[in-house]
Amino acid sequence: MVKIQVALDVVEPDRALTIAKEAVAGGADWIEAGTPLIKSAGMDIIRKLRETFPNHTILADMKTMDVGAAEVEMAAKSGANVVTILAAADDAVIRDALLSAKKYGVRIMVDLISFPDPITRAKEVEALGVDLLNVHVGIDAQMTGVSPLEKLRQLAAEADAEIAVAGGLTPETAREAAQTGADIVIVGSYIINSDNVSQSAEDIRKAVDSNETTKTDRKSKDEEMIEIFNRVSTSNISDAMHRKGAMQGIFSKTPGKKIVGKAVTVRTFGGDWAKPVEAIDISGPGDIIVIYNGDRNIAMWGGLATLTAVNRKLEGVVIDGAVRDFDEISKLDFPIFAANVVPNAGDPKGLGEINVEIICGNQTVNSGDYIIGDDSGVVVVPKERAYEIARRSEEVWKREKRLFDEIRGGKTLAGALELLKWENQK
Ligand SMILES: O=C(CO)[C@H](O)[C@H](O)COP(=O)(O)O
């Protein structure tokens, strides 16, 4: 039977133990002390896991690169059954780690993460005596859309060792992995960031054990991004961008309406509304007109422009400037984000450009960048990094869902995050 390994990639030991219990209740067989957890809590977390789960396989994800024997000894003496060594480590490291593993009765799993030719390396480490390999796409690389399944397919056809697979697995991809020849399916985020850890572990268990070969429709990256940006909030996205991307001073004037789409940029001046309304005519469904006007006290958007935008099925408008006609706009179902509302309008002089780089709310916006607006504000995601940011913001969103669950269960936010321990010590 294919084993399920839950990867405890959190930095708070108490949370890790709670999550591990819930994951085991849902069907996880192996418990991984993830690398961040080991770096945060040291070998003590291995000891605690061993004490809590005397009969489970515990993997210490040391990701060792040097001094293999000593690190294996440490993990083994603390209670681990399996210790990871990086495939990129020198053969001497792996050989010595294997000797130490024999001495202390543990197994070595060689992690092929980021190795340029993992199949050749897998055969080399097999020849050294390794019998447990991990085909692995790391968390950061996953965010750029890389999956471990193709490499797994190749390795399963060539290797004799037991094969583990890791890299953002979900029930669908875990099932595919099991059917492709994985012996151990390693799942972190899908389980540990769930607001129902046991249920998520059970979903993986059921998927891995099922014989179904349901083909899931592969979405385009663009569809996937739009779906994710609709699910997460501007706050999640800003967190994923290391607090960057938020427009300053621009907020929803139509609360409760969220927008997700691609920017059609307009630069204009002092209430000149010609280019903004011309931009409506070259835009369509999914587009968001993003306007820099240079004057926040003269309206360059109003009821007539809004009705035209509704007719052309635009997603919304974002204006570094002012809007008017809210008596009319409030009757139209159209999201408007702006800096100000005033009754006085400018003139259509035709100054400015469409689809050039602009600054809006102190953020640079290029045509085609992703714009997301909700009741917290508006964020700009540069099109070149949009997929990665979408995936990272989904991880933020999931982690927060899990924290909500813990707080509902009685924890405080400071307690759940062990804030006192993590205050800046500098
Ligand atoms: O070792 C790891 C990262 O280096 C993770 O534990 C592994 O990738 C599984 O987590 P996820 O399912 O979130 O990818």
Structure characterization notes:
The chain has 426 residues and is α/β, with parallel strands linked by helices. It has 2 domains: 3-218, TIM Barrel, CATH 3.20.20.70; 224-387, 3-Layer(bba) Sandwich (Glucose Oxidase, domain 1). Helices cover 41% and strands 22% of the residues. The protein has 19 helices and 19 strands. The chain has helices spanning 13-25, 35-41, 44-52, 68-78, 91-104, 118-128, 139-142, 149-158, 171-180, 189-192, 197-209, 221-231, 234-240, 274-281, 303-311, 326-329, 386-408, 413-416, 419-422, and strands at residues 3-8, 30-33, 57-64, 82-86, 107-111, 132-136, 162-166, 184-187, 251-252, 259-267, 287-292, 299-301, 316-323, 336-341, 353-354, 358-360, 363-365, 370-374, 377-381. Strands 9, 10, 11, 12, 13, 14, 15, 18 and 19 form a 9-stranded mixed sheet that branches. The chain has an 8-stranded parallel beta barrel with strand order 1-2-3-4-5-6-7-8, surrounded by 9 helices. Strand 3, helix 4 and strand 4 (82-86) form a beta-alpha-beta unit. The longest helix has 23 residues, at 386-408. The mean pLDDT is 96. The structure holds ribulose-5-phosphate. Residues 7, 9, 34-35, 61, 138-139, 142, 166-169, 186-190 line the site of ribulose-5-phosphate. This is 3-hexulose-6-phosphate synthase. Residues 3-204 form the Orotidine 5'-phosphate decarboxylase domain. Belongs to the HPS/KGPDC family. HPS subfamily.
